[in-house]
Structures are given as structure tokens and as C-alpha cells.
Amino acid sequence: MTRPSLTSDESFRTLTAKMKHYEVEPNATIGEIKSMFHKSHPQWYPARQSIRLDPKGKSLKDEDVLQHLPVGTTATFYFRDLGAQISWVTVFLTEYAGPLLLYLMFYFRVPFIYAPKYDFTTSKHWVVHLACMCHSFHYLKRLLETLFVHRFSHGTMPLRNIFKNCTYYWGFAAWMAYYINHPLYTPPTIYGEQQVRMALVLFLFCQIGNFSIHIALRNLRPPGSKTRKIPYPTKNPFTWIFLLVSCPNYTYELGSWLGFTLMTQCLPVAFFTAVGFIQMTVWAKGKHRSYLKEFRDYPPLRSPILPFIL
Amino acid sequence: MASTEEDGSVEEKENNNKKRTKSAIAVAWLTFYNIAMTAGWLVLAMAMIRFYIQRGTHKGLYKSIARTLKFFQTIALLEVVHCAIGIVRTSVIVTGVQVCSRIFMVWFITNSIKQIQNEESVILFLVVWTVTEITRYSFYTFNLLNHLPYFIKWARYNMFIIMYPLGVVGELMTIYAALPYVRKTGMLSMRLPNKYNVSFDYYYFLIIVMLSYIPLFPQLYFHMLRQRRKVLLGEIIVEKDE
């Protein structure tokens, strides 16, 4: 007794009803086929096309060559619309610019945030100024890395991601900034000034570490390529953590935010650190798993994000 | 807002070529769990009916069943664990949201704000919850025993059409009634300055909770409607072929 399958949200367009025929050379790439498809279907630019040999199979890569695929003299491909796409660079720039600017608005106590008598005043606590410098430095660094350092595997991501990501980054930034720059802010009480100093050291150490890892990862990949290699420690001591961890960029990122939490002693910052840590752990585990799958000789001592622990 | 729940039964998956054979222990435990929960909510139902028949009023009814309600509704947290360990095929997040909203209503509204315990809206959502849970748990039980009477399936996929909106009304009215007391007592709230540099206003939090019903309720409601069409109407078409 087979139940009729009803349309689910992601219905697959089998082109049997509207089959398009193309003549191509055997050495044509999927990327070229996507361009041809785009010409006859101008609304589906190549970045939003997913081309597969099997409707339920994996998406083929742009670099795949026709004659190396399991097809005969005719090949049938299935197309899926991935939805509107946006470039990774655009998303990163937008999601990082927000926190940078929002935090500064709270720092300078722009009107309508706090009571009017506090408009454009400055905090009397030096840790508040320090926190602003650290937060701004962090997001400035991220923006510059997006423009000059990172080499992205994928060009684009679904458009709806930008709304999700910006809500997350901008929302948390505003929430943290509100309390740190509040007229009634209380500087760290547990270990006072010493706490702030140690937190600053931790923060700076991890910022340098994180940057070192980004540079190391960039150098693994020649410009314009999408190759994947195992990262190894370099002469830079900050990269020696590669001996123990697959994704030390996340490890250092966690460290930076732990530093910022201790520096400001602010619960919203602790929340942000915790949520970020959970997300980064998920990503690190995924990355670690793909390294293990792709490379037989992957160093066994490494953990995804925390040495020996996680 | 959790009058109904996403269905996790094996039966309702399309194209079920790869049958998942659950371990015998899992099936035994789930059967026991669902029978126990069905019994628990039946006990609640009978206690409520008996109270009303004996006293003729709903005042004091919540107090009389409070302990039983808290017990069985809190135990439902296990359902999140079931999803997490994979013996029930439903999203952990969906189940988590459903169970948490129930726990929230019971512990953070009705249990903590004594002044609203005799509101009619409380009785409304209690009745809705009881009817829904008895239907739901007996549905799961019969499913696990592979003997599902049609009327239980019918109930599970039709009652929600009325129960769900009624439940939402009951819950929203209860939260609304609680607002003045929350404001007056400042319960669960924290103000600046404090050493954690955070503040929380339970009053405004409740208002946000009420507003969140607007986007969330239609999503869950239409999801159940879609499930209903798949399960109930799908079946009718096949019977015609035979």
C-alpha cells in the first residue's frame, strides 16, 4: 500500500516535463554547463544552481569534468534551485560592521539609549574604555581579515543567512554594549584591577593567536584555489597548538571572549561566549570529521577544539 | 503553547523503505512511558471532574490538582531525552520548545503567581491540555503496540483544530492576568547596579512571550494541519483504489 507522496517544501524539479538539451564537449566542466543553463534560464544564476546526477545525490562541483563523470554519450542531470545567494564576503562585512558601530554608539552614549542626563557623557571607569578598545579592535581585525586574509571555499551562501547572522551578531553586540557602557556599570569586583589586567593579557594573546592561525590557513591555499591540506605548526609559536587541535582559530576565539568576559564581568558577555563556544564546537567537530575522512594520515593526537577534551 | 506536539511515530514517515528497528528495550520503555503518562493525565482528568461535581465551582480546583499536574508535566522533559538519544524520531528542538513552554506555564506562571490560580482561563488550558495529552499519549501507546484504533488516530489529528486555539487563548489570558501581580512584586527581576552587570524585567519578558505566540502559533498550527492531510486524507485516497 503506497501512500501518494505529497509535495514537501523542497520539491525537486525533474526536467522530464521541461527537459533542456545541450550539446557539450566531453571536457566541459559543470561550471560551464551551469553557465549554459543560466543563459536559457536567466533567473537562475550559476551560484544558485545545484546540479546532480541523481535527484537525491550530492551536488556536483563546478570543477568536475564531464568525461570523468559516470555518464555515457548522453548525460541526464537534475537541477535544484538553492534560492537567492549572497557572497560570503558581503555577509561577513555586514555582520561584523554592525557590532563595531553599534558598540561605539553605546560607548558614546548616543541619545535615546540611556536617561537623557547621560547623553554623550563618558564612563568614569577605565575598564569601560579598555573594553571599547578591545571590542572595536576585535571587529576591525575581523573586517580586515575578511578583506585581505581569508580564502573562501564557497563563493556564496543562501540569502536568508544574512538576516539570521546579523540578528545574532548585532543583537548580542547591542545587548553587551548596553550594560558595559551603562551609567550604573559595576567594574570587576572579584579580583578588581588584577582581574582586568590578566583578562587583557588573555584577550591580546588569543587575538594574536587567532590571527596567526588565519595567516597559516591562508598560506596553505594558493590564491584562487580551493585545495584542502592538513594544517601543520609553523615557525610562529602561536601555531604550535596545531599539534593538539584541528581548529585552533576557534580555540583562540573562545579564549578571546573568555578574556573579554573576565575583563567586563558582564553576564551577557558570558552568554555570548557560551553560545559562540557551542556553535564553534559544532563547526570544529564537523571540520575535524572531514579532515579524518579526507586524509588517511591525519595526526591522531588532535582534538577538534579543546586539547584532549573536546 | 504546547497543546499538540509534532508526531514522532515511525508510521508517519513517507517513503519508509528503510524501516528503523528500535531496540526491544527502547520499545518496552516507550510503551511503559506512554501508558504511564496516559494514566497520569486520566487521573488528572478524573480529579478535575470530581472536584467540579463535588464543589460546583472551579475555585480551588488548580490547588487540588497542582501536585499531580506538576509531576506529570515535568516528567515530560524525558521526551526531550528520547529525541536526543534517538529512540523517538522527532527534532529535539521542536520537542524542547513544546515541553519548555508547558513547564514555563506550570512553574513560572500558575505555580508562582497564586492570585491567578482561580482564573477561568487556567481551567480552560488545563482542560485543553488534559484532553490533548490523553489523546496523544494513548495514540503513541497504541502505535507502539501496533494496534491503533481509528478513532484514536482521528482524535489525534482532528481535536487539535479546536483544542490548539483554545489552549492558546487560555494560556495567553492567564499570562495577561498575571501581569499586574508581576509588576507589583517585581518577581524574578533584577535591576542595575549589580556585580553581574545585567538586568532582567520579568514583566516585559512576559509581554515578549505573549507577542511570540503571534509568529509561533500559526507555524505549529499549520504544521499539524499538513500532518493531518498527509496522514488522514492520504489514507482515504488509497482506500478508494482498493
TrEMBL record, chain A:
Keywords: Endoplasmic reticulum, Fatty acid biosynthesis, Fatty acid metabolism, Lipid biosynthesis, Lipid metabolism, Membrane, NADP, Oxidoreductase, Transmembrane, Transmembrane helix. Residues 24-81 form the TECR-like N-terminal domain. PROSITE patterns: S5A_REDUCTASE. Residues 156-310 form the 3-oxo-5-alpha-steroid 4-dehydrogenase C-terminal domain. It comes from the Eukaryota. Gene3D superfamilies: Phosphatidylinositol 3-kinase Catalytic Subunit, Chain A, domain 1. Pathway: Lipid metabolism; fatty acid biosynthesis. It is found in: Endoplasmic reticulum membrane. Its EC number is 1.3.1.93. This is Trans-2,3-enoyl-CoA reductase-like. The lineage of its organism: Eukaryota, Metazoa, Chordata, Craniata, Vertebrata.
Automatic annotation (TrEMBL), chain B:
It holds the Pfam family PTPLA. This is Very-long-chain (3R)-3-hydroxyacyl-CoA dehydratase. It catalyses: (3R)-hydroxyhexadecanoyl-CoA = (2E)-hexadecenoyl-CoA + H2O; a very-long-chain (3R)-3-hydroxyacyl-CoA = a very-long-chain (2E)-enoyl-CoA + H2O. Its EC number is 4.2.1.134. Belongs to the very long-chain fatty acids dehydratase HACD family. GO terms for cellular component: endoplasmic reticulum membrane. GO terms for molecular function: very-long-chain (3R)-3-hydroxyacyl-CoA dehydratase activity. One of its GO terms (biological process) is very long-chain fatty acid biosynthetic process. It is a multi-pass membrane protein. It is an enzyme of class 4 (lyase). PANTHER family: VERY-LONG-CHAIN (3R)-3-HYDROXYACYL-COA DEHYDRATASE, VERY-LONG-CHAIN (3R)-3-HYDROXYACYL-COA DEHYDRATASE 1. The chain crosses the membrane at residues 27-53, 92-110, 122-145, 157-182, 202-222. PROSITE patterns: TYR_PHOSPHATASE_1 (PS00383). Catalyzes the third of the four reactions of the long-chain fatty acids elongation cycle. This endoplasmic reticulum-bound enzymatic process, allows the addition of two carbons to the chain of long- and very long-chain fatty acids/VLCFAs per cycle. This enzyme catalyzes the dehydration of the 3-hydroxyacyl-CoA intermediate into trans-2,3-enoyl-CoA, within each cycle of fatty acid elongation. Thereby, it participates to the production of VLCFAs of different chain lengths that are involved in multiple biological processes as precursors of membrane lipids and lipid mediators. The keyword Transmembrane applies. Keywords: Endoplasmic reticulum, Fatty acid biosynthesis, Fatty acid metabolism, Lipid biosynthesis, Lipid metabolism, Lyase, Membrane, Transmembrane, Transmembrane helix. Pathway: Lipid metabolism; fatty acid biosynthesis. It is found in: Endoplasmic reticulum membrane; Membrane. It comes from Esox lucius (Northern pike).
